[in-house]
Amino acid sequence: MIDVFLSASVPLPQRDRRFFETADILGIREAVKALVEVVLPIGSITCGGHPAITPLLALFVCEAGLGADGVTIYQSAFFAGQTPPEITDFVNVRVVPAVGNDRGASLTAMREEMVASRHFAAAVIIGGMEGVFEELDLFVRHNPTAAVLPLASTGAAAAVIHQKGNYDKQLARDLTFPSLFRRRLLPLRDTWSPKTYPGIRRYLMSKVFISYRRAEAPAFTARLYDHLELAFGEKALFRDIDNILAGKNADEQLESALKECAVLIVIIGEGWFEAISASGSTIHDEIDYVHMEIAKALELKIPIVPVLLYPASMPPRDKLPTQLRALAAYQAAIIRPEHGFDSDIRLLIERISAVANIDHVRYWQLIEDCRAIGLVTIKSSFDKDQTVLEEIQTTKDLLVVMNDGRSWVDTKRELLAQRATDLNKTTRIVLLHPESDFMHVLIRKNKKSLDVQRAEIKRSHDTLKSYKWHAGCFDLRGHHGFNPYSLILTDTYAFVSTYFFNESGQLPLFRYSRLAPNGLYHSIRDDAERLFNGAHPISDEHF
Question: What is the torsion angle, in degrees rounded to the nearest 10, for the CA atoms of residue 50, residue 53, residue 55 and residue 61?
Fold first, then answer.
């Protein structure tokens, strides 16, 4: 992952003529295109909105077939109604409140928030006008160890910055922008660490801090937490009920957690203003924990995502305590507790991921994919799923495919003996034939000699044959291939455990259900039946 700040614009003739006259318009276009194609597949681009650059970004993101969620565009509310229509192509648009009617102050406020929004690995300067100089000064102040690449070949402000600074001369001559970015930006992915830049520690912690009142919608907060845990993992989340340690100063723990978090989630219900904490405080009291959490996040410039529990609305700025008034400028996410909850929570997760730059699992897609193939359980080993034992005991038809089967047969003696006495149950077992040409593969996997490996297959053979099976209820065969998995196939489930060539002890178990009409159970059964039908009976003479 790499985060790149882009400072770029196409100079206008009515502004400072030195920028317009030296700008290479085609070069600016090609440089922006190359940056999109090189960075977005493995990182993000953050920039200020510009009437010419925003449409270029939208065009090149579309042409490259990349997701627009990798681009974050900052706009000042001072220019409301003046943004290009392509701004709607981007999901991550940050609108920073204007500073009265002051154009310059509004732009500075927007730029300040933009360059401090994350810890950037590099700034790329393409073309540009006078605003680029301020952006660069702010950027260096907030990201002192980041690389700065002023592409002097694109002319305009980038050329001026390159000329006045101590920058590589190659940036003035190299017009092969894709190659340039790959050489200069991609290596930066491996150079970030808390040791080289202590300020990046908070970024690496990737904590999602949940600010809420326990007395207000506790069931909703717990439900929201469960979904965020699925998306980001338990270690990426912080809420006081789970993470505040007894016997230690709670205020210090909260402040420490906020300094390490990447985003603050503020849960706001209908009674948020009036809600009283366990200590008797409200949002208007500076000693109130929710008040302190929001104030500290604003002070540290931590991204904030207000989450409104429908039908709650965002608190008006003039009704918020002075320290918290900036909260009103943040765009809120709305969560409907019943109809629409699933779609709302997914949008929230995507937004948190984009704002905080935290990877996440689209678990809802994972669930759909698993449902489609009938995958209902994943366990670390056979022993972790009790359904295996229940199915062996109750299924009418049992088909087992193993290599030597030693461990499985040894641990299932009682169940197999019970099946042997039941006329209504059939048991078919396929092992690797002791005369198979693939015995050497099994020897390599298990790190055993040929004699030992054949002896283990014989042990399984002798144990299985020792039971008093009813005629037609048992069949033991040997196949001459190498089966890459262990399989227990019942009337309801297919239990599959894949082999590793390096001995790894217990192996993961995947359970597939017969109920999925197009699921893998049916393909696995067909494959196992073909293997069984092509196998040959095993007798003592084969050993």
Answer: -130
Q: Which helix (H) or strand (E) holds 362?
A: none
Q: Give the DSSP H/E element, type plus range, for residue 127.
A: strand 122-127
Of the candidates 344, 294, 317, the one whose C-alpha atom is nearest the C-alpha of residue 97 is: 317
Rounded-to-integer distance, Cα 84 and Cα 482, Å: 62
Q: What is the DSSP letter of 74?
A: E
Query: Which residue in this structure is represented by tokens 């540009």?
Result: 128
Q: What are phi and psi of 428, to 5 degrees?
A: -120, 130
> With respect to CATH, is domain 206-361 assigned 1.25.40.340?
no
Q: What does the alpha-carbon distance between residue 189 and residue 187 come to, in Å, rounded to a whole number? A: 5
For 515-536, give the DSSP string: TSTTSHHHHHHHHHHHHHHH-E
For the chain, the structural domain boundaries read: 2-198, 206-361, 377-542
The answer to whether residues 385 and 493 touch, using CB atoms and an 8 Å cutoff, is no
Q: Which helix (H) or strand (E) holds 335?
A: strand 333-335
Helix H or strand E segment including 440:
helix 439-446
Cβ contact 142:202 at 8 Å: no
> For 377-542, which CATH superfamily applies?
Endonuclease Chain A (3.30.870.10)
On whether the pTM is more than 0.70, the answer is no
**Shortest CA distance to 234 belongs to which of 221, 246, 244, 225?**
225
Instruction: Kindly indicate the confidence band of residue 443, based on its pLDDT and cuts at 50, 70 and 90.
Output: confident
Domain over 2-198 is classified CATH 1.10.472.10 = no
How would you class 355 by CB atoms within 10 Å of its CB: exposed for 0-12, middle for 13-18, buried for 19 or more?
A: buried
Report the share of the chain in percent with pLDDT over 70. 92
Tokens of 218: 């506790």
Instruction: Please give the helix or strand (H or E) that residue 2 lies within, else none.
Output: strand 2-9
Question: What integer pLDDT is reported at residue 399 of this predicted model?
Answer: 97
Is the alpha carbon torsion for 454, 456, 459, 460 positive or negative?
Answer: negative
**Long-range Cβ pairs for the range 63-67 (8 Å, 24+):** 63/33, 64/36, 64/37, 64/40, 66/36, 66/37, 66/40, 66/41, 67/40
| Range of weakest confidence among 45-59, 207-221, 510-524 | 207-221
- Of 40-49, 232-241, 352-361, 478-487, the one with minimum mean pLDDT is 232-241
Q: Distance between CA 64 and CA 59 in Å, rounded?
A: 9
**Rounded Cα distance, 433 and 439, in Å:** 8
CA 162 – CA 57 distance, rounded (Å): 24
Amino acid at 25: I
